[in-house]
Structure formats: C-alpha cells, structure tokens
Amino acid sequence: MSPRAHTFTQLSLAGALLTLAVTAPPASAADRGHSVPLRIATYNIHAGAGSDGVFDLDRQAAALRALDADVIGLQEVDVHWGARSQGLDVAGELARRLGMRVSFAPIYSLDPVTAGEPRREYGVAVLSRFPVRSATNHEITRLSTQDENPVPAPAPGFGEVTLKVRGVPVQVFVTHLDYRADPAVREAQVADTRRIMARERAELPGARQFLLGDFNAEPSAPELAPLWKELRDAGAGTPATYPAEAPVKRIDYVTVGEGVRVRTVTVPEQPTASDHRPVVADVSLARRGPGRG
Fold first, then answer.
1. How confident is the model at residue 263 (pLDDT cuts 50, 70, 90)?
2. Is the peptide bond before 243 cis (omega within 30 degrees of 0)?
3. How far apart are CA 113 and CA 110, in angstroms?
4. Which helix or strand (DSSP H or E) is residue 64 part of?
5. What contacts 176, CB < 8 A, 6 or more positions away?
6. Are 81 and 119 in contact (CB under 8 A)?
7. Residue 81 phi, psi dihedral angles, 5° rounding
8. Which end of the chain is more exposed for a tag (fewer CB within 10 A), N or C?
9. The pTM is what?
10. Three-state DSSP class for residue 81
11. Is residue 162 left, alpha or beta, with left meaning phi > 0 and alpha meaning psi from -120 to 50?
C-alpha cells in the first residue's frame, strides 16, 4: 500500500490489550483446504441512537454482538462528537465491549468546543476479530454538511483496512455515500471508489476485496451501476434495510470482489437499535487463483 496523507492504523486500547489474549477464531477443516470462511457485516449505527431516537450503547452493542461477525463495517460513528452520543468515543467503546479491534476513519474532524478536549469527529469504522495490518482514510468527493455553502470536493471518510484472514490477504472498504436526492455526488463517489479500489487491488495482488456501507441508493439506481462491473451485491434478493422499524428500501450493502463466494446473506430483524437494519454475509475466501469463488 503506497503512503498517503491520510494513512494510519488506529486500534482501540482494548483491542491492543486483547491482541495477545484474544486470538482469531480457530481454524476448521475448510481453512486447511482451498477456501476460508468469513462472516462479514455492515451496520449504520445512527451515532448510537435507536429508531426511537434514544442513545443506548448497551442496546447497540447487544445488536452487534448478536451478529457474531468477524468483521463489521460501521457508518455514522461518533468519536467525542457531542451531547447526542454523550461525548463518547463510540467506535472505541463498541470495540471494547465486543473484544474487537477498531479502525476509525473520520469524515469530519473539528476543533473541540472547549480547549484541551478531544477533537470532535464523525465518520466510519471497521471492527475486526483479526489484527488490522494497515489502515487508510481515503478521500472521495463529498458535499459537506458542516459548511454553509458547500461545493463538491475531495474529503476523507472512505476507510480501508488490510487484514490477513488465516493466511488470505483481505482489503475491507467502508463507505457512506451521499444522501441527497440528486445523484450527482454519489456518481462522483462511485467513480472515486472504483479508482481507489483498483489501485489498492494492484498494490496487493491476490487480496480479496469487500465494500461495505450505506450507499443511500437502491441496487437498480443508475449511479451504482458502475460498481457492479467489479463487485457483486451479496445481498441481492434480501429484504429492505431502511427504515429499521418498517423497511421499504434496501440501501445497506455487503459487496464482494473476485475470489469471494457468497454462501448466505441475512438482514436480521433488528428494528430498534438503529434506524437501519444490519446486513450479514457468510462467505468463503479462495486461497488462490484469479477467478471468482
């Protein structure tokens, strides 16, 4: 992975302390063959608030724990953002409660209201049972919600982590695409995403790629069409994900690249922990070979 301005590896204190105590899940017979199992999920956690608008990290941690996923991409993650999430490092706190490593990629990183306090940050994150080998906060086109008169411009918040899953290199990307009805910014974001993922794929040949996130568009949306040239929508045919209480749109995705075989995908009936429902995919990673699993 080439050095870039926003390259970093960020592990929670809990994750760092657990590195020796918590090992990756035990290998099965399948691991010793031609493929490796992995459970991977995505969840827009609504800054810790449920569909009722109440901030409840106990409820959200329980919902995440129930997924029993090895890797989880999170969107709408607060880190010392403010009163709505009690000023907590939500990414780090969830990682601590689940005994997982965490990598946080801020979209916004603002000065604190009071000097000496932590920066106010909001973005996306990855929780992982496997050690994070490296992490990058890529820039893609954004229309800021923090500026009075925003214009589309490159901004951070497209997170990537590199893992090694029982010997198989894995690149996990997590994103939150623009929410506006006008698809223009999403179109630019999709173009940026494809360019970045292609570059990262070339720099780590043989890596299995995943793109997780809230795309704020349904699968048939024209602006998403270019993604399906390199990626597969693992959740095709699954139920809607938003809004959580009575979903009518499928806008949350686990997508997979070459060398990944999708076994099962579910949208757990979780109507209260967030305003979105999670998506969970059980997949197999090909150990070698260029073809799709």
1. very high
2. yes
3. 9
4. helix 57-67
5. 44, 75, 76, 107, 124, 157, 213, 214, 216
6. no
7. -70, -45
8. N
9. 0.89
10. coil
11. beta
DSSP string, 188-257: HHHHHHHHHHHHHHHHSTT-EEEEEEE-SS-TT-GGGGGGGGT-EETTTTPPP-BSTTS--B--EEEEE-
- Identify the three-state secondary structure at position 97: helix
What pLDDT is stored for residue 289 in this prediction? 53
Identify whether the C-beta of residue 238 lies closer than 8 Å to the C-beta of residue 247: no
- Whether the predicted pLDDT of 157 surpasses 90: yes
- For residues 23 and 223, the model is more confident at 223
Least confident of 9-18, 49-58, 122-131, 194-203: 9-18
- Per DSSP, the three-state class of 41 is strand
Q: Which residue type occupies 103?
A: S
Question: By the 8 A CB rule, do 215 and 177 touch?
Answer: yes
Answer positive or negative: Cα dihedral of 187, 189, 195, 198.
negative
Hunting for tokens 């999170």 — which residue is that?
Answer: 74
- % of the chain residues with pLDDT over 70: 87
Query: Shortest CA distance to 105 belongs to which of 144, 146, 134, 145?
Result: 134
In angstroms, the CA 48 to CA 54 distance is: 8
Question: For residue 107, which of 148, 143, 155 has the smallest C-alpha distance?
Answer: 155
For residue 233, is pLDDT > 80? yes
Q: Could you tell me the CA-to-CA distances from 176 to 74, 102, 123, 185 in Å, in that order?
A: 9, 17, 8, 12
Q: How far apart are CA 80 and CA 240, in angstroms?
A: 31
User: What are the C-alpha distances in Å from 262 to residues 4, 167, 238?
Assistant: 32, 19, 13
Whether residue 256 contacts residue 38, with contact meaning beta carbons closer than 8 Å, is answered with no
Per cent of the chain over pLDDT 90 is: 85
**CB of 203 closer than 8 Å to CB of 244:** no
